[in-house]
Amino acid sequence: MKVWEERKKSMQIRRKMPRRIMAVLLVIVLAGAMFLSGCAGTKTAENHGSSGAAAQSETAGSEKSGRKTTTFTDDCGRKVKVPAKIDTVIASGSLAQLFIYALAPDTLQAVNARWSADAKAYIPKKYLSLGQVGSFFGNHDLNYEQIARMKPDVVIDVGEAKPSMKSDLADITDKTGIPAVHIDANFDDMDKAFTKLGRLLGKTEDAKALADYCSDAFAMVKRGMKNVKTKKKVMYCTQEDGMNVLARHAYHSQVIDMLSDNVAVLADPSSKGSGNEVNMEQMMNWNPEVILFAPDSYYDYAGSDSAWKTLPAIRKGSYYEVPSGLYNWMGSPPSCNRILGLLWMAKLLYPSQMDYSLKEQVKTYYDLFYHCDLSDGRYKKLVQHSILK
């Protein structure tokens, strides 16, 4: 009896053991599944927990993951990964747009602001229909969502390197998922800017032609300025009433400062293209020999305005309107269009010292930079209130 009971207990133990083992195994499997699920959840959180910038950046990167990339070191010292072959571009603003339009117009997916009313006279029709994305600087209305939808290969900024440039570019990338780079472009080194832009866009030969034009223009004007013994006293007026000036040492007055004695000396020169607001008393104290009016300023009315006629330059007819088409030759924006302003202003002030044909230089510029065949009639219209006055 005891033997049977012991055998019975032994059989019961053997029957229960598999269930216990199964239970243990089940616990182990469930624990493992929970662990794996936790890991997967963590990865999901890592992938989708970021919002806006990071999420868009990953999306853009995955869509273009099949393309070869290269590292471009911009003029902020940032190493930025960009496509090895760049086909589509958005400019950060109109200053950069002029550079890109000159070098690679077909890469532009949009413009930063509406073309001017007379753009049809200079711009091929296919570029007139480009949409608008606003500007990071200036109007500060860059449309990040639109850029993210368009998915350009790169956003390019060209111009003055502001103190906040690195964070500004990072902000553009964060909000669009698109790499953004900066290229320095100062008035006296436009050629270097085109050379670097050419390397970025894979258009080194085209960039060389533009760079050579800029450096040759500087060389011609500097050669002529060596024969100028005394620079003319000049005042540059802006705004509809003409009562703003581009003060000496302002970023927008670089052409004026190079070629003349800029009489508008102020303690705090404005960094804006509109310049500093002044009054007639200040203008009379400065007593400029020559007055330049920005396009759409007060040129048409100054000669008949009794207040303005107190200035000797107005009474003598020594005042002129800056040519404009497609852009103001002296700036607004202060981009490569200022090369035209350099050639024009030097020829206007010191005609006998400048040994070049302004008309031929302007025609060449319009061909290279605006992709436009400028007629003699159009040229005369451009300079009718200045050289041909």
Low-confidence stretches: 1-64
What's the Cα radius of gyration?
Answer: 33 Å
Structural class call reads alpha/beta
The run of helices and strands is HHEEEHEHEHEHEHHEEHEEHEHHEHHH
From the spread of the alpha carbons, the general shape counts as globular
**Ends: how far apart?**
135 Å
Strand content: 5-15%
Total beta-strand segments: 13
Helix percent band: 40-55%
In round numbers, the mean pLDDT is 86
Q: State the helix count.
A: 15
> How would a crystallographer describe the biggest sheet?
6 strands, mixed
Can you walk me through this structure?
- By secondary structure, this protein is an alpha/beta fold.
- The chain contains 15 helices and 13 strands.
- It has helices at 2-48, 53-63, 94-103, 125-128, 144-150, 165-176, 190-201, 204-225, 254-259, 280-286, 299-302, 312-315, 338-349, 358-370, 376-382, and strands at residues 69-73, 79-83, 89-91, 110-111, 131-132, 154-159, 180-184, 233-238, 244-245, 261-262, 276-277, 290-293, 319-321.
- Strands 8, 9, 10, 11, 12 and 13 form a six-stranded mixed β-sheet that branches.
- Helix 2 (53-63) crosses helix 6 (165-176), helix 7 (190-201) packs antiparallel against helix 8 (204-225) and helix 13 (338-349) runs antiparallel to helix 14.
- The longest helix is centred in the first third of the chain and has 47 residues, at 2-48.
